[in-house]
Write a structure and sequence with these properties.
It is a single chain. It is built from four helices and no strands. It is mostly helical. Among the domains are: about 15-60; about 90-120. Helix 1 packs across helix 2 (about 35-45). The protein starts with 15 loop residues before the first helix and ends with a helix.
Length: about 120
Amino acid sequence: MADKPATGNQGKRYSAEEKAEIVAFIIAYDTEHKRGGMKAASDKYGVSVVTLSNWKRKDKGPKKRKAKGKKVAAKKTVKTSVASPKVVGDSPEAILNRLQAIRAEVHKLEKEYDGLKKKL
């Protein structure tokens, strides 16, 4: 899998594509079997479960920290039907289509906001 062979005290080096493929395998396995994806990926690809856990955690993005001693107001989230931006290996056409859909959604929300603002 790795381009460079392991030498000395270094382990294998995996490309971003290989990491994404393995993380996708874990998620698919967990979706189908409810759990056990990391162990199955470790057995299949020969990667440590700890390493897989780190890759999966990094794939989720940075952790959000809570402020100490302060009450944090709950944020209201807006659900959209736009696809997730973390799709690995998208073609430029797919990215463009997703961008156009996001822009259309933003335009629709701006029109709705203007209408509500006029009612005030």
